[in-house]
Amino acid sequence: IDYALFIVTRHRRGFKRGLGVAEAATNAVATTGRAVVFAGATVCIALLGMLILRLGFLNGVALAAASTVVLTVAASVTLLPALLSFIGPRALSRRERRRLAEHGPQPEPPTGFAARWSAFVERWPKLLGALALAVVTVLALPTLFLHLGTSDQGNDPASSTTRRAYDLIADGFGPGVNGPLTLVTRVDGAADRLALDNLGTTLRATDGVAAVTPVTYNTGGTTATLSVVPDSAPQSQRTSDLVDRLRERVLPRAETGTSLDVHVGGVTAGYDDFAGVIVGRLPLFVGVVVGLGCVLLLLAFRSVGIPLKAAAMNVAAVAASFGVVVTIFQWGWGSEFLGLGRAGPIEPFLPVIMVSVLFGLSMDYQVFLVSRMYEEWLETGDNRRAVRVGLAETSRVINSAAVIMISVFLAFVLGGDRVIAMFGIALAAAVALDAFVLRTLL
User: Fold this and answer.
1) CATH number of 127-152+282-442: 3.90.1300.10, 1.20.140.160, 1.20.1250.20, 1.20.1640.10?
2) With contact defined as beta carbons under 8 Å apart, do 398 and 76 qualify?
3) CA neighbours within 13 Å on the CB side: how many for 324?
4) How many CB atoms lie within 10 A of CB 170?
5) Global confidence as pTM
6) Is the pLDDT of residue 109 over 70?
């Protein structure tokens, strides 16, 4: 929606300055339309960056979202100007058309709250910048305690039947029964069978193990499996430590002198492995997305400082939004009140999608804001005026688009699903911080 808002706003401003219908539309596309193309390109880069992770379920998300952005940009610079030319002067309200007919085109200096706020920021830049930095820093601090994992029925609201069943099982049989580990290996000969019989005894003596089931063989006796029940909950760090202990120390010792190759599986171990894969590839993903985005801004504005500042502010917005997510979902501050269940880990794929979406949205605002400042600077050569006018003329549109997106994202909470609500709150917090703190203050 912000692409259309910026082009329509620029088209209306051209009307008020005395341009004709075609000339106003042409000017809007030549100026704001160029910013829309660059903004859309940064969003596509951020979304397509998910392909680097080589995770099949994210590839479809990346391609579908990037295709949507491409079509939206194409419609904004082709279909939208055609529609604006078709409706002609009706792009203005009746009051604005009457005023234009009576008084003719007049300069339209920025007015209203946006202009006053821009002047206020210009008078106190250091104080307000420090205040914005302090707010973002405080919100970002919980990110240092981010714990990636997958939620289960134990995180459902207390009133749900799945949560009640989960709690009954944990109370009656121990927390580990909700997430047993499955050990599987191929068997070749009597020596392997003897080693497996001894393995059960070794596992029962291992720290963190509550119970071990007898070894079960397939019909041909070539594959064996057994289950290990931890003495801690599936999402507990103790359970993750047990998985590592089995893989790194206990099982290699048991395999010595045999052909056994015991694998640790099950839902709990699978969740840990998935989180490990995401964490391992996340630095490359973030580096590629930020790097290519900076290159695109470098081409757009021919400045090194603007891309670096944009990257730093985007990272700040992402970190602060992660802090909000950790506070609500991992620490549980208000999660039960919102009907989102009790505290638990953060979904492993949340950082990937959040970085993609938030980097794209943040770059949108950066491109629109700096583009208008750059135009004003080219006209006047006055840097302070360029910043003041650029902020005053774009902040209203940026804030309007942000309010729309925040409303949409917060609606995700109404569904009651923890994962969807996590996305909604994270994106809403990031957009709010980016639009109302970073872009208008810092």
Assistant:
1) 1.20.1640.10
2) no
3) 21
4) 17
5) 0.79
6) no
